[in-house]
Cobalamin biosynthesis protein CobD
Amino acid sequence: MHRGVSTAAGLLIGFAIDRAAGDPRRGHPVAGFGMLAASLESVTYADHRRAGVVHELVLVGSVIGLGAVLRRGGAIPVAAATWTVLGGRSLARTGRMMADRLEAGDLTAARELLPSLCGRDPEALDTDGLARAALESIAENTSDAAVAPLLWGAVAGVPGLLGYRAVNTLDAMIGYRNQRYRHFGWAAARVDDMANLLPARMTGLLTALVAPLVGGRPGTVLRTWRRDAHRHPSPNAGVVEAAAAGALGVRLGGRTEYRHGVEQRPELGRGPAPAVGDLRRAVRLSELVQYAAVISAAVLAPLSAVLWDRMRGRSARG
């Protein structure tokens, strides 16, 4: 089987397994990587950027090297890696659970659930605040947990799948601007920004494509993206959150309370603030984008393989 075709097949199979089974409840490889990274940090940590660069290179480089070994097995390792790195079904399930708890008026249970979606202070949020926090997290994580790994898998196979998840996990662990990680986590944050530049914009385009299925308009998505995304402090989260706001006809951003303090985020979109019903629509939008992403990745994988083969051929002739 041609390498591009086997990659496409592996991506489709791995996506199907994720949709059917979700993340394993115990022994998740990503959790194991996180434990390894935390242990290594006790050795590599120093309050300067060079130490963070070494930390990033060792961990991400090791994972990409492992992926390069595993890629020789055809579709099976691609499927296994895809299932390992995807988090789309778990994201949608958590979003629905949040909507259920908010509709039932159980704010205590909703607040307990919020940390599994984002790092905001749940005790400071009411029903609408919890709905907005969950919706924004679902929009951003649709790209991080589904579109980005699928795109990197299509372009680079198993090394792309595993390498992207390593980059994204390290950013979630140390890519902060607090006192401990301002310098050490700089490389993790910058590499994650670069790794998500194209996936975030692909997510925005796919959001525009499927917007009519959640009551939105593609033109509104693109206008909101163009008008508002650049105002967000993140070059990537701004794109996907603005696109989601345009598709759902809601206004995101505003006062955002974290445990470390309060941030005033720019407003994205021109509709009303999101309510619980909008959160359910956001979950549906996320799932539609995920399906569109895996189809796009399956089409892109053979084309990418042909391009890599041509580049290698030119290099050999040179």
Observations:
- The CA atoms of residues 10 and 76 lie 6 Å apart.
- The two ends are 28 Å apart (CA to CA).
- The chain has a mean pLDDT of 92.
